[in-house]
Amino acid sequence: MASPARRVFLTATVLLTIIRGITLSAHPTATSFVVIHAAPAAVAVSLTTDARPLLMKLEALAGVTPSPADLPLDAVDTRIGALGATIVEHLELDLDGTRADLIVRGIERVKDRPDAIRVLLTSRTPSSAATTLRWRTSLFFGSYPLAVRAGDAMSAVPDAEQYEWLSGMAISQPYRLGAFAAPQAGWRHAGRLVLIGFTHILPVGLDHVLFVLGLFLLASNAKALLLQVSAFTVAHSCTLGLAMAGWVRLPGAIVEPLIAASIAYIAIENLVTTRLSTWRLGVVFLFGLLHGLGFAGALASLGLSDGHFAATLVGFNVGVELGQLAVVLGAALVVYALRLRPDQYRRLLVRPASAAIAAMGIFWAIERVL
Amino acid sequence: MHARSLAAIGVVAILAVGCSQPAASRSMSGAIKPIALLGSGTAPDTSRASLEATVRTAEARLKTTPTDAASAVRLADALLRQARVLGNSGLMIRAERALRIVLNADPQRYDARRMLATVLVSQHRFREAIAEAERCQQVRPTDGWSYGVAGDAHLELGEYEQAFAAFARMNALHPDAASYARLSYARELQGDLDGAVIAMAMALEATSPSDPESQAWHHAQLGHLHLAQSRVTDAAREFEHAAFIFPDHPLALEGLVHAASRQGRHADALAQAERLISVAPSPGALALSADELRAAGRTADAARRDALAEAAWRTDAPEPARLALFLAKRGDKIDEAVRLAESAARERDDIFTNDALAWAYFRAGRLEDAVRASARALRTGTADRDLRARAAAIAQAAASGTK
């Protein structure tokens, strides 16, 4: 039989290998792409691309004096915002052959891609009466993926029928909205959101996974774990709902570094305390509020918050809870397999794992601030 | 679609950009262009409409039977051709996906694996392509295809000895349009333009009449070689022929721009350049149109078009070496040009990357480094006019001790 230290080492090695295999960052990166969400009330378009080249293009197309190459990114965003009319001029969204009026609704930074921005547009024309949608832009001079969602149809996995690669000014295939625009039953909608919520934790939400593991490590029994997870769940459900309703709003630039800091805090506290205090529960609740805003940001970036408010909230939350439960169960299995005595558990597992989580949290916090 | 999934697709796109054209010859403006597709002797009808029909049919079959290897190979071939006539590198991701599904189900499917190697070259994943091609060579050492693919990949990496040896082996095993075209490019790279023309003419003769896309490609290549020999009228004829066989073929349009420009017909050249941008937009096409705008005296428009080209090279089709050369030629952002060219040269040692590096060094005043890189750029004996002109300028500066 291997010694406890050896078992911990082996288990840690296996887990690290698996995690490395999944992803080394909390969220993946991307290049230019366009997402169109044709909800019955309006059509939303999001265009994600690198900010400086976009500004360069817009200034060239508008025939205005080019900005200096070292313009700060904030100023780049402002300039792009000021050239909204040029953006709209070079986008074509046709509903049944009629060009829809697009307006720039906002410009936001893209998480984990400091040089990229997302331009959010909506059409004044509702898509409810339209049967087909086509798209074209003259802002790209290479190939890019276009994804189209109609009505409430959405999928957590790529669907060949819902996206295509376009080259430059090529017009998209006609998307028949009627084929997938029929309103889905709320429960079915919620079912889809469960999957999306789950995948937001596993495998792409490594930051949330580490937070939950941080909670797990300090829980000496099931009750302690349940209390912490419950506090976290209630809190993030509150802010997720409030943010989805538009009552609470915090920019991702603030929320994301704070989420990273919360991971570091929880892990560091694991190193200095052995008991679950009321203070800890309060802190977990506060951090849960933050994570809820993060979840809301993820939902918004997916364009999933339109329609079926309750079903979206419940479905996504259930998915997140299932994801967290999977993390906790996985961790419990590992602990069970290690069969450590209480003193060994703290020395060989809680301390090194918490130190690693804290380091990761600090790294992310710095990375997300920069 | 889930935005994260789209983001992941985007990551793949980063890998695929700049690879709108598979290996392994070079257009007049320096863009990498495809060699004739392998097995073109038995190619199906490849008119634009037929390509679309082939894609539709193959995808419909794969929908019901995703592991149908024949359909996957047919789909990949059609998508590769569409990619080069539309400039849509994203199509190659679809091709790879279809082939991977087949190979996951049956790793022994030789036809799917050798097509995968071709797709990987077209995505500029040269090392992976070589690995797949070598696997194919182990299974069927007498199939010329895998030597052609391996040669293309070695060529792009600047491993010319291996590339030329692979092409020679391919020709010995199975002389056909694809192997003659490679032979032609090998000769061109070594400065034997007459020999290159002869080989390309043989490749054209060996191309199936029912394969208009390949025919157009070969005519455009012949035009390119004539242009390199300053036989502009012959070149224009070949480009016209290519455009007649396959209307709006990007290589034909690009050739027509160059031919008209060399004949001083800048208005015609500009019109063709605009057509090229609308058919198969690329940073190279934008830069080409900027040159014509400049030649027509429209300097402000040319500057704006240059800005679009630069932006497109940064984000739509990142090609660090070409962006570096572009910036170095323009004369601003020289430090960035050097950085980009050095970064590209760490990945690839081909003569065109070394040319970009040499010119960036030269413009940065690093004459010794420029001379060294320029020597690497000239090492195959290429007769490329622009490359030789830059090398001559560097050599002259070195001889006179100026910067």
Structure characterization notes:
The complex is a heterodimer of chains A (370) and B (403). With 370 residues, chain A is of the alpha+beta class. Chain A folds into two domains: 4-26 and 186-369, no CATH class; 33-179, no CATH class. Helix content of chain A is 55%, strand content 17%. Chain A contains eleven helices and ten strands. In chain A, the strands form two sheets. Chain A has a six-stranded mixed sheet. A four-stranded antiparallel sheet of chain A has the order 4-3-7-10. In chain A, helix 7 crosses helix 9 (278-302), helix 7 (222-244) runs antiparallel to helix 10 and helix 8 (252-272) packs antiparallel against helix 9 (278-302). The longest helix of chain A is centred in the last third of the chain and has 30 residues, at 309-338. Chain B is mainly alpha-helical. Among the domains of chain B are: 281-318, no CATH class; 320-403, Serine Threonine Protein Phosphatase 5, Tetratricopeptide repeat. Chain B has 21 helices and two strands. Chain B is globular, with a radius of gyration of 21 Å. The chains are: A alpha+beta (370), B mainly alpha (403). At the A-B interface, strand 2, helix 2, strand 8 and strand 9 of A face helix 1, helix 4, helix 15 and helix 16 of B.
Q: Which properties best describe this structure?
A:
heterodimer; A: 370 residues; alpha+beta; 2 domains; six-stranded mixed sheet; four-stranded antiparallel sheet; 55% helix; elongated; B: 403 residues; mainly alpha; Serine Threonine Protein Phosphatase 5, Tetratricopeptide repeat; two-stranded antiparallel ribbon; 21 helices; 2 strands
Query: Which whole number gives the mean pLDDT of chain A?
Result: 79
Which structural class do the helices and strands of chain A define? alpha+beta
The percent of residues in helical segments of chain A reads: 40-55%
The third-level CATH topology of the domain at 320-403 in chain B is Serine Threonine Protein Phosphatase 5, Tetratricopeptide repeat
Neighbour order of strands in the largest sheet of chain B: 1-2
